[in-house]
Amino acid sequence: MGFRLGKEPPFSTLRDAYRIRKEPRNRKAIAQMANSISSRNRASAKRWYNGTESGGSVFFRRKGSFIRRTVCEDWLMALPREKSQVFDAAVCRWERSYAMMSVALDDALSLRARGELVCARQQASIAADLLERLANSLIGFCNAGSQRVRNISNVPAVEPMKTEFFRGHIAQSAASWNGILHHVLFGGRSRFCHKLRILSETLEQLDRKFRQTAERIANDSSVQPCDGWNLLDCLHYDFNTCLRETEVVLKAFLRALPGEQVAAFAAELETPVEPRRLRGLRAALYRASA
Prior knowledge:
Number of helices: 11
Shape: globular
Mean pLDDT: 78
Radius of gyration: 29 Å
Helix content: over 70%
Structural class: mainly alpha
Strand order of the largest sheet: 1-2
Order of helices and strands: EHHEHHHHHHHHH
Largest sheet: 2 strands, antiparallel
Low-confidence stretches: 1-25, 40-65
Strand content: under 5%
């Protein structure tokens, strides 16, 4: 039996429509009956619902409610002008940093292939420094988004990370864990915060592993240099995937962010983030002097 709310619809509507088709009437009478049917349908639609027969939702949309969009819809739809400027500026900074890091790593691999090992090691160290700078910026967005999403009612939808999009163990393990918890956490806010936390932790681990590997190569202390170079390439691939994930989340977040918070959030994105190694050194010096 269908679920019913309020008064039932005027089922005589069907009979009236049948009479219009079958009984000979003049045009004026037909027009009057058609208007009557239309007005009764509109009135009944406001107070009656049959979930089984119409196949819709049993919940009525309240005033001020929002339409939940998919991740693909959020990505394809254009942002308002102010939000679009913030998004373009942030992505432009990230892409420039990523391009410089990629060029440095590509030069290092090319130099190694030609046997110029000293220059290759120097370029690998430069690539690690550039990667750390970009990772700090991306992690800064994840932290700022996690703080601001707590006060947003229209939380954007997110999709879990896919293990098949990554090569290395670090990112694949993070994606697997994200996929499991995505189906355990039913609230949209919890899913969004967990996605940001997983991205932040994965970026930090990839950056740390890349730096450690590049330092061993630069110091010529790697037991298996060939494996180290292959690992750098793998970490670079997974970092690129995390960058694309972050850009998608940023656009969805900006769409949901209230207009009055856009300027403050843009300032947070533009604020330089101190490297984690320097923060750790500063904390150690402070504890030593205390």
